[in-house]
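INFO worker-7 received task bundle
INFO bundle size: 2
INFO processing item 0
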Amino acid sequence: MTVLGDLSDPEAALRTLAAERACWDTYLAYFEVLDEKRPVLEACACFTEDATITYGMKGGALEFTGRAEYADFLAGATAAQEMVAHVVGQHRFVWDGGTPRLITYVTVWQWFVADAHRGDLRPADYVAVGHSVDEFRDVGDAWLIARRTVRPAAGITAIGSRPA
């Protein structure tokens, strides 16, 4: 029997690479939905129904359990944004007992509705660098995020300010 994450066996290595590609596609789809201002429920479909999310980019860590709870948070968080762009930096997969974790750095550029009068071609109002660890689960037809932890990459790594 092959175990995903075992790169010493050619069959397992190919299955591992295919799983990592599916996880990567899910990960990027989440940001694509947010950046294109599509419905947050579509972004939440990248998570398992029982996902746990720890979001520490706004001071203390916020904890969410399940898609619905996270969707409520995202709806509020994205309402103030006129535009947003997530730029993924270095990343790597780590396997533990057949479970993949994706570790990444993400730079988030945000333009807020409150500053829309300054036009579309303006510098971002707020930029932050986050560190994300995502654990994925195979749900049959896709690999979805089962656990996410996001924190600042180093202290408050940001320029600009959030709206009041």
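INFO item 0 finished
INFO processing item 1
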Amino acid sequence: MLPKIYDVQPAVIELEAGDHWWCSCGLSGHQPMCDGEHTGTGMRSKKFTLTERMTVRLCNCKHTKTPPYCDGSHVGLEKV
């Protein structure tokens, strides 16, 4: 069942300014970024743009209400 919970903790990573694509399905082999594994699932990646280099907390449980950013929705979820 999608989205697949990749992890129950956010990915805290530093990203360069520019466009990025967050994995919303949990199938990517390059979490938390999209690698196209969602093809055929009906799900889509989430494009987001940073205006400067910064550290971000990206959702890994895929249940955030504020994609691509972690909003704490992982609390109480289990990785399967």
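INFO item 1 finished
INFO post-check item 1: The chain has no helices and four strands.
INFO post-check item 1: The first strand starts at residue 11 and ends at 15.
INFO worker-7 idle
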